[in-house]
Amino acid sequence: MPSPFPGMDPYLEHPELWPALHHLLISEIFRFLSPQLRPKYLVSLEVRIYETADDDLSIGIPDVNVIQPRTTTELITSNVAVAAPPTQPLTVNIPMPYQVREGYLEIRERGNQELITLIEILSPSNKRTGKGRQMYEEKREEILSSRTHLIEIDLLRRGQRMPVIGNDIESHYSVLVCRGNRRPRADLYAFNVQNPLPAFPLPLRSGDTEPVINLQELFTQIYDIASYDLKIDYRNWEFIPALSEADTIWANAWLRDRGLRD
């Protein structure tokens, strides 16, 4: 069963669902590309592993149970309204270290093992201040200073966008296709929750046939295989992160038209 939404399903941005979607999507792109690129190119699924600590626990951490901290306002109000005796401690939360695993794809020429194209799907830790963003920015700068092509897929509404120049369009999601021989110019596919996911070419060496990655088709296959229609309660769940008021009205009407909202 396909997703009821025309493109990206915003429910899949939920912290408990996103890690699996990230893994499935990068794996599905690998499975799609590998037979098309052989024998000249090899596709490898790589994993970036690091430990970090996060003080914004509301974003959600895969495979880690945390207690939702009180906000700064709540703490200040509590301290002012009820002065705790000096002998009574306050209950607080501290940033806990956890391991992050981020999958990405490398496409190399088989003969000399030269890195031709890098495909990244941004994770929540790439889009907020901390070790994850720092590591990714360093990798991104390294790629952009080379002749390697970069594809950067951002299917997360929350967080700080990766820097681009000349984009005056506000969008929920984006795909950046940055060819090594065209920099600083790049192609940005910007789209919203109301739109289908885009199709875009995979940059390779000049003169080689470039497969087209139809992100919508791959997403639909993943949604069906993972049975997300049975995992998501479209009638009762709230959007995390929240949609704007206008987008919430649109989404609720869209789901009602498909019998998924009362």
Structural notes for this entry:
The structure is a single chain. The protein is of the alpha+beta class and 262 residues long. Helix content is 27%, strand content 22%. The two termini are 20 Å apart. Residues 57-80 have low confidence and may be disordered.
Give a short overview:
The chain has six helices and eight strands, in the order αβαββαβββββααα.
Helix-strand category: alpha+beta
> Shape, please?
globular
Main sheet strand line-up: 1-2-3-4-5-6
**Count of alpha and pi helical runs:** 6
For the biggest sheet, the summary is:
6 strands, mixed
Order of H and E elements: HEHEEHEEEEEHHH
Task: Give helix % range.
Answer: 25-40%
Number of DSSP-assigned strands: 8
The overall pLDDT average reads: 88
Sheet-strand content, in percent, reads 15-25%
Distance, first to last CA: 20 Å
Q: How much is the radius of gyration in Å?
A: 21 Å
The parts where pLDDT drops under 50 for at least 5 residues are: 57-80
